[in-house]
User: Fold this.
Amino acid sequence: MINLKNDYNTVGDKKILEELIKYSDERYVGYGEDTKSKELNSLVNNICNKDVDSYVLAGGTITNVIGLNQMLKYSYEAVITVQSSHINVHETAALEATGHKIIYTPNILGKLDISKIEETYNNFTDNHMAMPKALYLANATELGEVYTLAELREISAICKKLGLYFFIDGARLPQALASAGYSLADIAGLCDMFYLGGTKLGLPYGELLIIVNDELKANFKYLIKNKLGMLAKGFVGAIMFNAFLKDDYYLELANHSISMANIIRDELKDYLIYPNTTNQVFIKLDNNKYNNIKDKVACEIWESHNDYKVIRLVTAFNTKKEDVLEAIKIIKS
Amino acid sequence: MINLKNDYNTVGDKKILEELIKYSDERYVGYGEDTKSKELNSLVNNICNKDVDSYVLAGGTITNVIGLNQMLKYSYEAVITVQSSHINVHETAALEATGHKIIYTPNILGKLDISKIEETYNNFTDNHMAMPKALYLANATELGEVYTLAELREISAICKKLGLYFFIDGARLPQALASAGYSLADIAGLCDMFYLGGTKLGLPYGELLIIVNDELKANFKYLIKNKLGMLAKGFVGAIMFNAFLKDDYYLELANHSISMANIIRDELKDYLIYPNTTNQVFIKLDNNKYNNIKDKVACEIWESHNDYKVIRLVTAFNTKKEDVLEAIKIIKS
Amino acid sequence: MINLKNDYNTVGDKKILEELIKYSDERYVGYGEDTKSKELNSLVNNICNKDVDSYVLAGGTITNVIGLNQMLKYSYEAVITVQSSHINVHETAALEATGHKIIYTPNILGKLDISKIEETYNNFTDNHMAMPKALYLANATELGEVYTLAELREISAICKKLGLYFFIDGARLPQALASAGYSLADIAGLCDMFYLGGTKLGLPYGELLIIVNDELKANFKYLIKNKLGMLAKGFVGAIMFNAFLKDDYYLELANHSISMANIIRDELKDYLIYPNTTNQVFIKLDNNKYNNIKDKVACEIWESHNDYKVIRLVTAFNTKKEDVLEAIKIIKS
Amino acid sequence: MINLKNDYNTVGDKKILEELIKYSDERYVGYGEDTKSKELNSLVNNICNKDVDSYVLAGGTITNVIGLNQMLKYSYEAVITVQSSHINVHETAALEATGHKIIYTPNILGKLDISKIEETYNNFTDNHMAMPKALYLANATELGEVYTLAELREISAICKKLGLYFFIDGARLPQALASAGYSLADIAGLCDMFYLGGTKLGLPYGELLIIVNDELKANFKYLIKNKLGMLAKGFVGAIMFNAFLKDDYYLELANHSISMANIIRDELKDYLIYPNTTNQVFIKLDNNKYNNIKDKVACEIWESHNDYKVIRLVTAFNTKKEDVLEAIKIIKS
Assistant:
């Protein structure tokens, strides 16, 4: 069975896993105070061309929640996002569990309607209502879409105007960068905090959270520990992300996944339902066809309608071209 | 420099790391619904000789907090423990951050004064006070001590009598088992929830939480996700713990660390300050001596007094005998 | 200036205030364990024709939050409501601050679209999403509308089917009862918990929370104290609510407020914008007219449009007929 | 039966209750934006001789929790207090329920051991531990003791040195002032936030929270609403506190309660067990004597020992001299 179900279905990239073995005789200081973590931070500073702080956390949800909690101090402070966003739909109310409200606006497919941010903010007028203090979006979005640099600049300017911190969920940021052609330094120049996902691109675990805004840097390790994210062996994540970032290896991995998705998009263009340019492809199959392929191609049902289904096909850093071609053949047949 | 600072100072055991590479071409379902996690759960059931549920979480604090939150539903429900316990002292108020009070009793070195549990419980008499609902202890303790099976039976009986859930923090449970000679099945027979630590015994990350009490099994994955502990690649932890548990490999690793500690205890018996039988050794050094060794042997200062220091030496699953002997020589000289 | 701004703009009904003086030489036990609270509970049992528990809390928000927290144990458990509801819009994220998500559906004016409850519930399919456990609505709604008994029965049946607790915010329940003609006993027969508002009908403070479902009765005072709602002088609220309930005095007060609103509705029917039958009247005034009246009639701007405003006129338990007539004259002129 | 059980056992002082009736025909703006609240704030500014903000909240626990939450932003920030303090023992873990740890030191009777504050603070050394950010004490204490002005100055200086906010629980501050002879202005000069209790001195409900430190003033109404303390009819509390403060009426009420307690202390000096100078008297009675009086004098058992009990007798603002004399006679007989 060909597996196009998601991009986190294997242990990880062998080259990165071998780094773990390579350094396994070394002894390090715990809790991210080690030499590998310092090395990683220097590398991140160089890549971002900025004096930023960086931390490896285990997964996307914990990174979203801890990052946003650094921005939202009092429990009346809230985050604005789109209805379809991960924190609103797919994190089992984890942010609310830390005491904060999510304010959401209708989405245009998976993207923020930029023209609605200010109006949404302005609905919160007095102390009988929550106080918006941050804006969250994912790039790439849940539907694999990428924000243009112009869009991000516009959002960044609106956030500055309204006094909102700007947080970018980068669970699939490498794929967005590979697709859109802008850089980590561009991102670092526009938001207050963001992360670069490893779990969905060849790491066994790990997201690299980057704090850009100096106001948000103080005492962050207190918050990481308090909100359950501190890893005793911080050096493990650092070793992996050093290999991930070095010589733009993460872009190489991301490019591969996108090139595989592009093959699908080209070959199945008649089935495409949502447009995007990253490693997720959404196609519409009538129920008969779906039933014919479902035991041959592992994939996610995104929407289930009376007479058709929307299917998500995801390519990973290590998806093989022969598998992609075979899957296409099965679907077309 | 010889490193006896802690037991989580290397990436991990090579045999276990190689398992990750071995399975890296396989594709798995996410979020712990995979075949490796099911295999692990069967293995744990066999070892515990009970129908238990098992989950791999990233580290000790998150395991303590999520486990206790499954026991403590309403925010007035509290946990009883000893003052020196990890959740009270070294977790940056992570449990309180989820809304629960920690009630603590004085410790006898690092252990619970069993004779005080009932009295402590009885101090909470009415709805103007918190309601104790769980008892937490670590085995081995922070000071490396092990509870005897008789002690655990007594505590278990008191908990049953008082209607308290019994939680055992097992960050160093393998070391306790190796030292005390009782088994995981014994532990599973006495408490409601416990875990078996991997981080401090050769895993790059991971604690194996085991739910014994049927009342505590429902909807636990909701809580894991809600409290930030869900790992997308659940199979990674499962692969590691399968290797860790198979043929009692974890006991082999634990035995090694204890035999190394025993050498230190034998050779430095005149310096010993706290008695215990696991992989931590606490010695008293006058300040002069400490200054002489501190650049040769990496170790933790546990207490700092005017004219002496209490030093903690920790042996790991992969501590070398030659390093132990050299460290002893340095300290004695 | 005639004040039709809201229904909580005076200290309270003199007859009720005089009760406080009448009993001011008596000494009572604290925290709601007194004879007056017991008397109140008997009275409530009689009126509801059921074995219910009753508690006086200070205001609407604290009653909503404590009541819902009794229903929602784990922090992944969520409440379903309409977008416009008080807990979602006008409580400064107080429910989320206790760790729970609010799931909302579009409103039909201020009412729940009953046909959407099940669909909304069914969107929450697995442990990556919140788990709906309660349904909240206000009767009367924010826009003064009243649910019919048939509607409440239908909602109650859906909640039972889906395993949702049913909570009714009754900040203006007396006004709903007076308008719709059903009784407290009808309400008690259909939901799991509800309250009867005093603040908006002549009490200086106080909402009477009534727990119908036996599953929700245990340890409620622990939660009240833990969530900041315990009042030392519980007997004060009990004295007031005894007078409020006795001989249906609360309905008398509610009827007055509605009869005053009905005069406005009759006389200003050409201006009416939202239909309802309780003590709130929503009218549409062009901006010129609004500017002419705004220094003569204190009222709330509900919506502000380019060329008109929606104005809310509220009548209270002690609104004078002459003031109502004068306000009508001013608005018509 | 003579009631000396507590100081919150009657509805309230008639003079204050009559104020409520006096103003009951006036219409006010809601939520503390009314003229009476502004008048109160001016009065408080004059009395404190400082530019402070003031808010009426319903009771002691909610005032402690909301006040401390304004000081403690991140959930790793903790408050230092004494073991016996109200927030630690008698508030059903309400502060922890908002996510903050209470760090406590042993008490000397009910008072803080001032010499231990700095040491306690210094135990919290790094990001694996909570971060102390506030110090809380009650004046008068749970045992009726009063801090001297010299003690408060010393504590204030230590707090400033350590960067701790200083919060004074004043549930019985009027009694402390009446006993110690210093003023509200003295208190306002030494701490960052404090309150003046009404519930225990003749108000049906209400504590007056006063924010001294400018850093703590912003957005406080957001926090009040978010943490369940907002009262729709803010003017009711303002009317009561205006009467309470005017012409030092609160000191008059406090002086009465203390003079009644002094009679007991003089007459029962052989029974006294804890020294203090306010309106609580602690006496030691053997079990026989206790059994003889318990149906004649309502009082609180503070400690229960094998052969004796410690009994608390409390005098209120309206305790009658004849009742005090009669109670003394009963106890002595």
